Structure formats: structure tokens, C-alpha cells
């Protein structure tokens, strides 16, 4: 039983405590100091309730206490898997023992029967879990498809960050604000303020002008091809690293780009052998345009979740040098994240998992 030196815990409060596995705690509802009764789940119930909580071996175990002292345990995947496995083994063990006791099978057959039973039950659980994951993925993608138009033509705001931090770029003695919009072991999305300057944008646009051509996408064979899902103009701009020491603007912003990538991911990428900067320009033709410039949903890396191939992409940085009057957002549809561009900002995203996929 937990005894506190206060008048009790208020609605919405939390209490953290450490204990040992299998210890059970008693929760007792105390009478109101004004009415002398307890607030039950209905007007006819003024009894004081009690409830119990038992500690598991999960470090993420959480209990939610609802009105009427109803205790709901929030299960993590490890605890859920442990309970499921115990249930499967217990059921199969019981069935096998009964068959063995009744002389229907031999000891050797009992071992085979137990293994077969567990294998079948585990396979059934995995199949059900796979179907649930597949269904949820379809629902999520369907919702994202409905939002696609509003991302391109509407005015969706940038998603709320899950955390905020700053990035200090030591070589330039500058600090940028970073909104972390998505951060998993296999993927990250960061929105960075004041990442590229007006002069750096102008230098990129000047270098791109004579190289602009209809946008293409990789064809999977080492070349490129025109794709109806991508409508824009583009130009690849070689990075003049040999001019970095003299303050070349394109080399300067490129160095900043790789420094942030290594800071955010720990990839320790070398600039040698990397892709050119790609200037992509989308042109607006009014709200009644039936075929607007856009880049429809795609993967910058491999969509299949396969092992990363050396030389393949692992991260992308989109830097915004022009901002449309309306629309123009970058939408990460499967993550439910939208980034509305502001001049000089950038959005960084990586997609190399810790497992090498």
C-alpha cells in the first residue's frame, strides 16, 4: 500500500515508484473531506473502492487509474508477447499431458505433439498479427491519399514537433533551431530554420539556369527517365569543393549540409563521391491549373525495405529558396508529417535503419 504525506492524488496526477517483479500494490479510495463518501461510478454508488497492481519485468509498465478505481494496464509489446507465449505453452502442455496420461501417445510422440502444437499456435498468432498490421497500413495510406491534394494546393501548416533542439555549427559559429517532427530507429524528419542564405540561394539559381531541363527520375538501371508523377524543371550542379577555401557559396552551404547530416545520423559521410546539388523548380500557373507542377509520393531511397546497397541514398536535405503564395508543402504521407516551406529553411530526412535496411 502506498501512503503519501499529502491529502491524496488529484485527477490527472502521476506517481512514479520503483519495486520488484511480482510485488502487488493496493490502491484504496479515500472518502471526500466534504461529503464523507467516495465518488463512485454512478450517483447511487458512494462506496469506497480498492484495486490492485502487480509489477511485471517491463521497465515501461504503466497503470492508468480511472473513475471508480478501475485500473487499466498499458501493455508494451514485450509484456504482451510474454503473456501470449505463456498461454500457448500452457495450453499445449496441458493437452499433451492429458493425451500421455490416457495412454494415447508415447513419450517420444508427446515431445513431437508438444512441438507441433506450439508451432501451430505461434504461426496462427503471427498470421493474425500480420493481417492486423497490413490492415492498419492500408487505412493509414488511404487517409494519407485523401490529404495529398490539400498538401499540394492547400495551406496545411507544418506538423507539431515532438521535440525541439538547437544545432550549433562550429565551423561557422552559427546556431539553428531544429524541430524534430519524426524520429525512429529507421527514419528521421527534422525541420531546420535559417539553414540557407539569400546569397547562397542566388548562387545555386544562377548556376542552375543554363542547366535547367525537364525533371527525370532514376530508372533503376543506373540511368534516368521521364516520369508523369514528377512535373518540374531541374538542374544538377557540381559542387566546387576546390573553391571552398576561398569562400565559394555553393561549397559553403554544401559543407553545412553534410555537417548536419553527420551530426543528426552519425553516418560520418565523406563529401567525396556524393551526388551533385539538385535544383528543382516548380512553376505555378494559377489555381485552375489541372496539371500543376508537383512531385507525387515516392521514395528517395529503396521502398522495399531491402538491405542497403553501397552507393545508394541514405538521407536527403530539401532547402527552400522560393516560397509559393499557396501550397507547396512537403508531405511525408506514411508518417503523417507535413512541412510548410519558409524561405531559408530546410527539411532533413534519413531512411537507413539500424539493421542496415
Which whole number gives the mean pLDDT? 82
Distance between the termini: 48 Å
Low-confidence stretches: 1-6
Report the biggest beta sheet as strand number plus sense, adding barrel if it closes: 5 strands, antiparallel
β-strand percent reads 15-25%
Radius of gyration: 29 Å
Q: Give the strand line-up of the largest sheet.
A: 5-6-7-18-15
Fraction of residues in H or I helices:
25-40%
Number of strands: 18
Give the overall shape, derived from the CA principal axes: extended
Order of helices and strands: EEEEHHEEEHEEEEEHEEEEEE
Structural class: alpha+beta
- The tally of helices reads 4
Q: How would you describe this structure to a colleague?
A:
The protein has 357 residues and is of the alpha+beta class. It has four helices and 18 strands. The chain has helices at residues 77-101, 107-153, 198-208, 249-265, and strands at residues 24-28, 50-54, 62-66, 70-74, 163-169, 174-183, 188-192, 213-214, 217-218, 224-225, 230-231, 233-237, 277-281, 294-295, 315-319, 330-332, 337-339, 346-350. The strands form seven sheets. The chain has a five-stranded antiparallel β-sheet with strand order 5-6-7-18-15, with helices on one face. Strands 8-12-13 form a three-stranded antiparallel β-sheet, covered by helices on one side. Strands 1-2 form a two-stranded antiparallel ribbon. Helix 1 (77-101) packs antiparallel against helix 2 (107-153) and helix 3 packs across helix 4 (249-265). The chain is extended, with a radius of gyration of 29 Å. 13% of the residues are buried. Mean pLDDT is 82; it is low at 1-6.
